[in-house]
Design brief:
- Helices cover 56% and strands 10% of the residues.
- Strand 2 and strand 3 form a beta hairpin.
- Helix 2 packs across helix 3.
- Strands 1, 2, 3 and 4 form a 4-stranded antiparallel beta sheet that branches.
- It has a domain of 51 residues.
- The chain is of the alpha+beta class.
- The protein is globular and about 65 Å long.
């Protein structure tokens, strides 16, 4: 009698691919965020601080300048960073009030899509061609996720068109992967976080990897 035994890998290929994808995403995200922090956050700050001083006086100048720098950085760093800034705008218990007030601009001031990205969003939304006789390329409202345009159908009916920024899902996933890698590294520092925090972080990773949590 021959007894057959089976051997199973301790980890599956998807389990092995996920850490690799996080590392790759972190390598892609880190230079972009560093560039944005310098170009949009640090470099314009002296001129911005001088303008704040001229218009609003010296009160809380450093925090106002910091808040404006964070707004500029978030506006050019994708929806995940923008949402984080919007959350911080409500947390005056951990962020100075002047910074929170400045961060509130993230609710109303977002840069519109560039012409190539707008064209890509239109092609994605209407692959068979635009069903409009008129389409106003100037948005009437802009958010971190989408923007809104006026248009007119061929029958003359006026409509409002909401276009989601192209590549949004991949951009969010990439930023989340990079953030999770950073959190993993921080949680491995002895005494940095409590055991409960580590368990919560691992639970959230499992949820994302199985599709239970989606943005």
């Amino acid at each position: 009698m021959v007894r057959l035994t089976t051997w199973q890998l301790p980890v599956t290929l998807p389990d092995m691919a996920l850490p690799t994808r996080r590392v790759v995403d972190a390598v892609l995200v880190a230079p972009r965020l560093t560039f944005n922090a310098v170009v949009y956050g640090v470099l314009p700050t002296p001129a911005s601080a001088a303008l704040i001083l001229l218009r609003e006086g010296p009160s809380a100048l450093q925090w106002k300048a910091l808040g404006d720098a964070l707004v500029r950085f978030a506006q050019h760093s994708g929806p995940l960073i923008t949402k984080l800034g919007q959350v911080l705008a409500t947390r005056s218990d951990i962020v100075p009030e002047a910074v929170c007030t400045r961060l509130e601009a993230l609710y109303t001031r977002q840069p519109p899509m560039t012409t190539p990205r707008l064209d890509a969003a239109l092609r994605s939304a209407f692959p068979q061609g635009l069903p409009f006789s008129k389409f106003d390329r100037r948005p009437i409202a802009v958010g971190s996720i989408a923007q809104v345009h006026r248009a007119e159908l061929v029958n003359g009916e006026r409509v409002i068109v909401k276009l989601v920024r192209p590549g949004l899902q991949r951009e969010i996933d990439r930023d989340l992967n990079a953030a999770e890698l950073l959190v993993d590294l921080l949680l491995k520092i002895p005494g940095y976080a409590r055991k409960r925090t580590r368990v919560a972080a691992r639970s959230r990773r499992c949820g994302r990897s199985t599709g239970a949590m989606r943005v």
